[in-house]
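Repro:
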Amino acid sequence: QTIDLLISQPDEIRRLRRNPIEDASHYGVLVEDQHYASFISIDTNNRIFYWIDEATSEIYRAHLTSNTISTVLPQALLNEDNNHLIIPSSIDIDWIGHNLYVTDRIHGCIWVLKNDGRYATKLITNIESPWVITVNPILGILYFINYEQGSMNNPNERIVAIESAYMNGENRTILVDTDIVYPTDLVIDFYQNYRVYWADKKKESIESMNHDGTDRTIIAHIGIHAPHSLDIFGSHLYWINRDSRSLYTIEKFGRGLSTLVIDKLELPLFVRIYHPLKQIQSVSNSCVIANCSHLCVLKPLNQYECLCPLNTTRQVNGRTCKAPTVDPPGNPVECNCLNGKCVYHVETNSGHQLAGCLCFRGYTGENCTLPQTPPPPPPPSKLWIVIIIVSVSLLLIGILAFSLIQLKRKGKLQSIPTPQLPRNIKTIMNKIRNFIIRSTDNINTVQFRNARSTTARDQITTKSPAVFPNPMYGAITTASNQPARLATSSDELAKLDIEVQPPPSKPSRKATPASPQSSDA
């Protein structure tokens, strides 16, 4: 089945569309003109993906185009966020509660805000250095990697842990803090009991555990070199090696070795997979009935909690915040050009983003889905017909004239006499004889139909024709046993240098018919 692998690189995000069954793939640019694109998160149900540009401390989102040749038009989410109070390090989307979770290493906290960038608030504070975050809205739990400095006795020592908490910030718990060196990515398998996977770059391993931290297992260690980012779908893990600039895949239970998917990447940072079935959608959303004024976050056991934007408070009812409401910015521009390329335009006055389709040849319609019948070619004008005929005629005449001139220069063009119409048979024979003699003067040999070669001046002899007997006289013999020869005008044959034999005497009418024999002259 076909999947899209989104790979972030400093100046762009690329998409690798891969079909493992057909062993086919297409690799193209999805997001252009970035400064330092890093973490990616995807809302598969709405086909919207989010990413961070660490150089500008901005979070963007865009609608995922259906074809692989079109880029997207980014929509910034934090450009009006109180002078950039959020410095994002990593992000993950809650596709059920429609919230975005963000780690902030500079401020040592985890933020939550609506998926359109409104109503940001701090969820967990006093974290030493939170980095990668991933959320499980089905269970109401989030996971993150935290780096802490060592104790006073050993300040250079770094303490690394994988922690969990409820998605409202409560019940913060350390799940893994031993035999872990430098974890760089964290993902969840929603189809395998919500198992959590992580990559340890310096330990050169990929490991997993249950959602509560139990049953820790090493998935792959041999053949795994410097894994930096990973994601999971179906029965396979996909992971990036930044050192070799390559993307690999391995069976998620650790069976077999890693297989190269694509190499020679520019500078791969993180990878995320898009497929309509990657995130479970058939889950109830308790926030639908919560009636929260600003933010609603999920908790375990299908519970929820209403939260307020930063530096505002809730009223007594627990649902309404003492904060102004902000109109949503609108969805990112959607472009679904099936057989064409997306083109974008931003209106100068209103700032509205518009999208259109530049259809490929042979297609038309709003999304380039309708086949276009090419118009019939216009009939040629009479003037053009005359010009073409005259041009071709002149060209043929020129070729013929040139050929005749060349043949005449080489001496191969001979004049052929044209015989006049004769008045009698003898004149005809003389004309033909003279014509043949003149035409064959320069010929050394002549191949006759009986395949015997001879020179033109060789003596030509003729054989006696076969004489067939009358069966009524077959039994009668005669003394005259010489067959009749070909009768020819002796004068004409002499002129052709043919030896003339005397004709045999005719048998008497009263004589007995000759026997069926023939002999050469």
